[in-house]
Amino acid sequence: MPELEAQCWHCSCPTGTKAKSTPGVTSIASAAVMMAAVSAPLSSVRDTLRRVQATHLIRQGLVLFAVGVLLALVLNLLQVQRNVTLFPEEAMAILFSSAWWVPLCCGTAAAVVGLLYPCIDRHLGEPHKFKREWASVMRCIAVFVGINHASAKLDFANNVQLSLTLAALSLGLWWTFDRSRSGFGLGITIAFLATLVTQVLVYNGVYQYTSPDFLYVRSWLPCIFFSGGVTVGNIGRQLAMASAEKSHND
Q1: Position 230 pLDDT exceeds 90
Q2: Is residue 168 part of a domain?
Q3: Which domain holds residue 78?
């Protein structure tokens, strides 16, 4: 009898334990399988979104680079023809009478600025809603080209009057086509940094300005950089908005 009782205890304990633990183990295993089944598609979707976003950023950067190169060639041609900007003869290229590094630098700057504007808008929670159409962007480009042409074409009694006029035109461009805090702040920052870099280049004899009145450059140059930053920023915003709409439709 004692042996039979011991056998009963020996057999019943694991069986009871197994019977009690089986539902919990099954539930955990089922949950793990469900989590794996859900996480795999989500991970695939995240990877796809990242690839799509990277592709859109590369495309936007290339478009902005091309726009910057084109604007640099056209606008620098106006400055050279009016003898506002003078390059050394050995630094001149045949295409549009411009130094070869000017379009590359302007294209790179346009890509950086154009990609930075929508990023700052998202960071500040200030989406681009004012005049959201390509027609407005094209008009902004036309006004910017007009401001640059005025800097080389108009003749005033002194440079102060010309600088004040271009400053008013640049602010008018921002008010007409932007009206955002981020656009104004980035425009001021770009104007300051670009003017500083230009001062360094002129100081080192890379090129020069005729009749400099603001250290080594012309006093109206920050106005050109400000309006250029606002213009390129609007192009970048419009490209980002078009890419976002395309991604949403896809």
Answers
A1: yes
A2: yes
A3: 52-249
